[in-house]
Amino acid sequence: MAAIILGWNPRLWNDWNYEAVIVQVAETGQFLERWNVGQHRKIQAGNQAWLLVQGGRRHGRGLIGHGVVMSEAYEAPQRTEPKSIAWYVSVAFDALLPLGSQIPSSVLSSEVPDVAWNTFRGSGRSIPAESESGLQRVWREHGPGASEPCQTVPGTYPEGAVSRIETNRYERDAEARRICLAFHGTSCAVCTFSFEVRYGDIGKDFIHVHHVVPVSQLGNDYTLDPIADLVPLCANCHAMAHRGVGTPRTVAELRRAIAAAGHLPGQIVDDRALAAQDAAHRILEQR
Fold first, then answer.
1. Helix or strand or coil: residue 140?
2. Tally of CB atoms within 10 A around 196
3. Beta bridge partners of residue 95, listed in sequence order
4. What is the pTM of this model?
5. 29's torsion region: left (phi>0), alpha (psi -120 to 50) or beta?
6. Is 200 exposed, middle or buried (0-12, 13-18, 19+ CB in 10 A)?
7. Cα(55)–Cα(120) distance, rounded to whole angstroms?
8. What is the mean pLDDT of residues 166-189?
9. H or E segment at 210?
10. pLDDT tens digit sequence for 80-101
């Protein structure tokens, strides 16, 4: 999908409580906001959106957030001038940096030189396709990312000893997580590890929740099923589900790998849930 830049000058527009927005994104995985994109009318749902602070010396210019456009451009009254019509899009922000911690334009200009970061104004302009990978790399290296803390993976030290586990907004959704764990329990669906059994009270209710199908392969009309789409995994199994593959390994594949290595875990996920996960994997292979 094409990527666009959204400009934000806190001095000129500060109708949202940015600190509260950051908290909401951390707790629920996203924050939905309407954004003025000037005369850029060809923006489509699914476009990546990068939030650029344009506040000058006081706030510092730089990249501060990422989101996904959730609608096509539409006309609506401007916030500051209700009698004037402008073009807007709905954006679901899914990762934000605290104000003052944005990635400076000097770094952006060095790593992604095809965009005029120091002079960019307004919102809605597209990013050159050849620059998108560089911008994503900068965000991974300097931004908050969409990942859990670094997890040590046994047997790979020193090279590759740290694995970053990519998570998405569905995995961070508190209500979806609650339903998933109410059905599946809090033990790892692959190896049966229980943080509560191992660590006592400090491990109670702690477990990663893994999305079976990559979000990048879901359509706009996707509706989450917390029971069929989410599964509890310990940190190690979560890392192995993602390691070295574009499409995550299924619970069944990981259990077979453990069994082949001589360690047969007990049964945690019922046959119905395993069948649903295998069916999802077959659908992915057919695409």
1. helix
2. 15
3. 66
4. 0.51
5. left
6. exposed
7. 11
8. 80
9. strand 208-211
10. 666 677 888 999 888 888 888 8
pLDDT of residue 219: 65
Q: Does residue 275 surpass a pLDDT of 80?
A: no
Closest CA to 172 of 280, 17, 24: 24
> What pLDDT is stored for residue 170 in this prediction?
67
Give the C-alpha separation, 44 to 169, whole Å.
Answer: 20
Q: Are strands 151-152 and 162-163 parallel, antiparallel or unpaired?
A: antiparallel
CA 160 to chain CA centroid, nearest Å: 22
Q: Distance between CA 71 and CA 44 in Å, rounded?
A: 6
d(CA 170, CA 153): 24
Closest CA to 52 of 99, 113, 114, 111: 99
Measured between alpha carbons, how far is 35 from 255 in angstroms, rounded to an integer? 46
User: What backbone phi and psi angles, to 5 degrees, belong to 62?
Assistant: 170, 170
CB 228 within 8 A of CB 255: no
On average, the pLDDT of the chain sits at 78
Sign of CA dihedral 51, 55, 57, 58: negative
pLDDT level of residue 205 (50, 70, 90 thresholds)? confident
Q: Which of 88, 261, 270, 263 is nearest to 251 (CA)?
A: 270
Copy the structure tokens of residue 31.
Answer: 């924050």
Residue type present at position 43: I
> What is d(CA 70, CA 32) in angstroms, rounded to the nearest whole number?
9
Of 172, 153, 168, whose CA–CA distance to 244 is shortest?
153
Q: What is the pLDDT of residues 217-253, one digit of tens each?
A: 666 677 778 888 889 999 889 888 888 776 788 888 8
